[in-house]
UniProtKB/TrEMBL annotation, chain A:
A single cellular component GO annotation: ATP-binding cassette (ABC) transporter complex, substrate-binding subunit-containing
GO annotation, biological process: maltodextrin transmembrane transport; maltose transport; transmembrane transport
Coiled coil: none
Name of the molecule in the record: Maltose transport system permease protein MalF
Species of the source: Enhygromyxa salina
Topology in membrane: Multi-pass membrane protein
Pfam family, one: SBP_bac_8
Gene: malF
Transmembrane segments: 401-419, 440-469, 500-527, 539-559, 606-625, 646-667, 703-724
From TrEMBL, chain B:
Family: Belongs to the binding-protein-dependent transport system permease family. MalFG subfamily.
Keywords from the UniProt entry: Cell membrane, Membrane, Sugar transport, Transmembrane, Transmembrane helix, Transport
Protein's organism: Enhygromyxa salina
Transmembrane segments: 12-36, 85-107, 119-139, 151-172, 193-218, 253-270
UniProt-listed Gene3D superfamilies: MetI-like (1.10.3720.10)
Keyword DNA damage: no
Residues of the ABC transmembrane type-1 domain: 81-272
Gene name of this polypeptide: sugB
Pfam families noted in UniProt: BPD_transp_1 (PF00528)
Localization terms from the record: Cell membrane
Membrane topology: Multi-pass membrane protein
Single GO term (MF): ABC-type maltose transporter activity
GO biological process assignments: maltodextrin transmembrane transport
One annotated Gene Ontology cellular component of this protein: plasma membrane
Protein name: Maltose/maltodextrin transport system permease protein MalG
């Protein structure tokens, strides 16, 4: 078969497939008769309850379960464009943000004060208007393993007293001590709060806050509470019977049904040190209307149906949810009643922008203090500074005139440059060159259009956003203010954690170390694999490529799990080494130190990236002529000489493009840093791109600010690559 | 003496490679072990062996169904797997078809804007997606492609073009120009020579480029989760993401899903890996 035949037969085989594909893609899922669109993030029993509730609804509903992490960003990117859901179910905390962005419309009906407790109505009311119909309430409570503890202890101190009597490896109290959400309950018992609701200002400071932190640290120190516990670990410990009590929410109960653990739920205990009860934050789940949904009477009917008494009864029966309504007669259920009793004692999480800015500084302060790095007061003062930094006033609007003048000058300059070039070529030569280029343009036309519209244009718009500030959809021009703020570290110390220069240094270190390892391991393995006498080469190659084939978000999370201090495989390895060699190595708290957290990130990324370099090396080595090597051997060149004088010089030019791209990708490797260390400890392992991500999505959507980061990253890479290019091209060529 | 040295060297080589294989497989075996565990071990383990082995998570993930409004039941997971495969295949086909002529022009023609074009392509790789995602939505909205799989495919395909052009350009440059010239002397046009002579020789490189484009689309979830508006249109990474909520994460389901998701790519890798060495290294001949 000639090559042409191959191509022809391939085309013949491909066409029907291509046509079918096009048809399939064109038939995007139709919304017949415009049913009401309802979005939620429920799973398991709650999803079942929702299905059952919808079964008794008259109209047609198009239901979409959205991943929790994507929920807010999906709403933000669709609703303002008139797309997205008519009705959605979300937590009341997000209402403040949604109102500011115009994603939610006020309820067209009033919430009866007889039907709902006052604080539930207050939770969904903003500026005197109700914005959502409450359905259920969620908060933390105390789970007690009845096999380990006969009577629910009345105070945290009594729980702590259990510790000695419990078997080894079993904790008296499991909860997410390092998170501000759970700590808020402890803080309340000490008379403090994360936010001063009256003044709408940061309140996680002062002696109460410090004492609450010291109290928790003592519990961890005494082995009562596991250190470094996240939600999943709490679930696992309690589910495996390795925690006498646990502080968790209703979601834990759903998991426990599978584990067949005997337990009861009671309201959170008191803290004897203060004599006060722990009071958790309350989340009110509520049905919200998008502006488009508010125009649709059927959608409003759906909201009433979802928040009605009948729906609450179904939810209570199927998912054991605590109803938001107070006017219901429900069959007895000890679990639901315990959570209901706790909900009565809980305070709704404020939904203001100030509250949203509290989380990150508070979380970091708690972790930093619990790691034992600083005094409580120091950690709290730092958190206050971070909060003020996040809530700093946006830059004032600037006049666009200077920018327009600069733009005009640039255009003039560009035009001048073009004219100059054309002149230099001689009269008519510019046109002739263009005419000669026509055939090539036919080949690149498609590429130019595709990359131009869907790659370059978004980049240009994104870069342009760096000159603006404010919420998306309400941005205003501020000139270079974002850049000035970044480059001056927003008035703080230029060498403080999180300042542009420190993060840049970390990023450069990150890139250099990673690329060095990628190259070192990749080239070494490539050389070994390409030995002429190597057996099993094909098998080895396949096995070594595997890290590349598995999605990186999966393996990054697997690596994070392996580095867990108490339960990770790396700790297992350390134990095994201790057993084997009789050493007494301590398990390492990987994410408590910059150097170890950075090492964990690097290990993950090296693992992800070395196969690419190995394959590139193998390809490049295939091009090394064997006769030259043989000749060198005959001439008495040692193996090392052959490698450094012949093989590597031949291989190097081929690998330069791959190394350049590898370095660029590593510089912007967001997944690994975000998923493995998450910036821990204290944001020190964040690189520029993860910092930009935080500004764009978790810190009040300071989108222009994030865009300015992106532009700076781009400029840095561009300049570096140009300089490197110059240096390399001045070399042997 | 030399035979013994050879043997030792061979032993050392295999040891190095086996260590590397352990390093590369260990985390993946953890994912596998998690997917088949019926319980979570709370002792740090060294060997990734499932605790209370079970097929339950796998069944739960793969067996996911959905009841349609008309009462019929569809195999949701199957539908979503098909979505992933079709979207990724379409991405790779479109991306590679766009990149092939573009790369050929960059490899063979002198034209105004050639150098600038290559630099621009490299520059697109430098700008973090964080800042270009939102404008992308606005452009898709303007093109009325929001919430469609077509829009998703076009986005993925365009994003995959720059890297595909780098790959293919060096592959085309490695092919001696004499071959096309010979064909053209025989009466073929430039385009015919390109299609009949160059493309068949470049097949390994095209296969590798196809694989890369396929993977870009197959593993992507941020854009897919934000763009797609119907459970039946979801791709698998979006489905996986649903297993990890803020408070309750079902790692067993996540791991089981991850394995199923990885299988097609592994198969593809296995198929293409022979070409991969040739395809990635082809630039070497010309530098």
């Amino acid at each position: 078969m000639t090559p042409a035949d191959v191509l022809r037969s391939a085309t013949v085989r491909f066409w029907p497939a291509l046509v079918a594909l096009a048809l399939w893609l064109a038939a995007s899922v139709a919304h017949a008769g415009e049913p009401i669109r309802l979005w939620h993030a429920y799973r398991g029993a709650e999803e079942q309850a929702l299905d059952e509730i919808l079964a008794s609804f008259e109209g047609e509903v198009d239901l979409l379960a959205v991943p929790y992490d994507a929920f807010a960003s999906k709403l933000e990117s669709t609703v303002p464009l008139g797309e997205g859901p008519d009705v959605y179910i979300d937590a009341h905390e997000r209402l403040g943000d949604f109102v500011e962005r115009g994603i939610v419309a006020p309820l067209p009906f009033a919430l009866s004060p007889e039907a709902y407790p006052d604080k539930v109505i207050a939770a969904v009311t903003i500026d005197g208007r109700p914005y959502a119909a409450p359905t259920s309430q969620k908060c933390l409570a105390l789970y007690v393993n009845t096999a380990l503890v006969a009577e629910p202890p009345a105070s945290v101190e009594r729980i702590a007293a259990l510790a000695d009597a419990l078997p080894d490896g079993t904790f008296a109290l499991a909860y997410e001590a390092r998170g501000a959400y759970a700590h808020a309950a402890v803080l309340a018992a000490f008379g403090g709060a994360l936010l001063d609701t009256a003044a709408d200002d940061y309140a996680f400071e002062g002696p109460e806050a410090a004492r609450s932190l010291e109290f928790v640290a003592a519990l961890i120190e005494a082995g009562v509470v596991p250190e470094d516990a996240d939600g999943a670990l709490v679930t696992n410990l309690f589910g495996a019977g390795q925690a006498a009590t646990a502080i968790s929410g209703p979601w834990l109960a759903a998991d426990l049904d599978r584990d067949q653990i005997a337990y009861v739920v009671v309201p959170l205990p008191t803290i004897e040190a203060t004599g006060e009860r722990m009071r958790p934050l309350l989340t009110v789940e509520a049905v919200m209307l998008s502006p488009r949904g508010a125009q649709n009477p059927a959608a409003v009917d759906l909201v009433e149906h979802l928040s009605g008494a009948e729906a609450a009864a179904i939810r209570a029966r199927v998912a054991r949810s605590v109803p938001a309504r107070a006017d219901l007669e429900l069959p007895p259920d000890p679990l639901r009643e315990a959570f209901a009793a706790q909900a009565e004692l809980a305070e709704p999480t404020p939904s203001t922008a100030a509250m949203r800015a509290v989380w990150e500084p508070a979380n970091r302060a708690i972790r930093k203090y619990l790691r034992g790095e600083v005094e409580a007061e120091v950690a709290l003062a730092e958190a206050r500074r971070r909060y003020d930094d996040l809530r700093r006033p946006p830059p004032p609007p600037a006049s666009p005139t200077p920018a327009l003048v600069v733009l005009g000058l640039l255009c003039l300059f560009g035009a001048g440059l073009l004219v100059h070039r054309a002149r230099k070529l001689g009269p008519g030569a510019g046109l002739a060159a263009l005419r000669q280029s026509l055939p090539a343009y036919r080949y690149v036309a498609l590429g130019v259009v595709a990359v131009g519209v869907l790659v370059v244009l978004p980049i240009l718009f994104g870069a342009g956003a760096a000159l603006f500030a404010g919420k998306p959809h309400a941005m205003y021009y501020v000139g270079l203010a974002n850049f000035t703020q970044i480059l001056t570290a927003r008035g703080g110390s230029l060498l403080a954690t999180g300042s542009f220069y420190v993060v840049l240094a970390v990023t450069v270190l990150w890139t250099v170390v990673n690329v060095a390892f990628h190259l070192g391991i990749g080239v070494a393995l490539g050389l070994v694999l390409s030995r002429p006498a190597m057996r099993l080469r094909g098998l080895y190659r396949v096995l070594l490529i595997v890290p590349w084939a598995v999605p990186s978000y999966v393996t990054a999370l697997a690596w994070r799990g392996m580095f867990h201090r108490q339960f990770g495989a790396v700790t297992g390895l350390i134990h095994a080494i201790n057993d084997l060699l009789g050493t007494s190595l301590e398990p390492i708290a990987w994410f408590s130190n910059f150097s170890t957290a950075f090492a964990a990130n690097v290990a993950t990324n090296v693992w992800l990236g070395f196969p690419f370099m190995m394959v590139v090396t193998l390809g490049a080595l295939a091009a090394v002529p064997s006769d030259v090597l043989e000749a060198a051997e005959v001439d008495g060149a040692s193996r090392w000489q052959r490698l450094t004088r012949i093989t590597l010089p031949i291989v190097a030019p081929t690998m330069i493009p791959a190394v350049t791209l590898g370095a660029i990708w590593t510089f912007n490797m967001f997944n690994v840093v975000f998923l493995v260390s998450g910036g821990d400890p204290d944001g020190t392992t964040d690189i520029l791109v993860s910092e930009a991500y935080r500004w764009a999505f978790t810190r009040e959507a300071q989108y222009g600010y994030a865009a300015a980061y992106a532009v700076l990253i781009f400029l840095l890479l561009l300049i570096t690559s140009r300089v490197a290019d110059r240096l390399l091209n001045r070399g042997p060529k | 003496m030399t035979r013994r040295a050879d043997l030792l060297e061979s032993l050392a080589a295999h040891t190095v490679i086996l260590l590397a294989v352990c390093f590369s497989l260990y985390p993946i075996l953890w994912v596998v072990s998690l997917a088949f565990s019926g319980a979570t071990s709370l002792e740090p383990q060294v060997l990734p062996i499932p605790v209370e082995p079970t097929l339950e998570p796998m069944r739960e993930v793969v067996g996911a169904t959905r009841v349609e409004p008309d009462g019929g039941e569809i195999w949701l997971f199957g539908r979503q797997l098909a979505n992933s495969l079709v979207v990724s295949t379409a991405t790779a086909l479109i991306g590679v078809s766009i990149a092939i002529p573009t790369a050929y022009a960059f490899a063979r023609f002198e034209f105004v804007g050639r150098r600038e074009g290559m630099r621009l392509l490299l520059a697109t790789q430098m700008f973090p997606a964080v800042a270009s995602a939102v404008p992308l939505f606005m452009i898709l909205e303007a093109l009325e492609l929001l919430n469609t799989r077509t829009g998703l495919v076009l986005c993925y395909a365009s994003t995959s073009v720059p890297f595909a052009v780098f790959q293919l350009r060096s592959a085309f440059e490695a092919i001696p120009e004499d071959l096309e010239e010979a064909a053209m002397v025989d009466g073929a046009t430039r385009f015919e020579a390109f299609v009949r002579v160059v493309l068949p020789i470049a097949r390994p490189a095209i296969a590798v480029t196809f694989l890369f484009a396929f993977m870009t689309a197959y593993n992507e979830f941020i854009l897919a989760a934000t763009l797609l508006d119907d459970e039946r249109a979801f791709t698998l990474p979006v489905v996986l993401q649903r297993f990890i909520g803020e408070y309750d994460a079902r790692w067993d389901l996540f791991a089981a899903g991850a394995i199923v998701v990885s299988l097609p790519v592994m198969l593809l890798f296995y198929q293409v890996q022979r070409h991969m060495v040739a395809g990635l290294g082809a630039g070497g001949v010309k530098g």
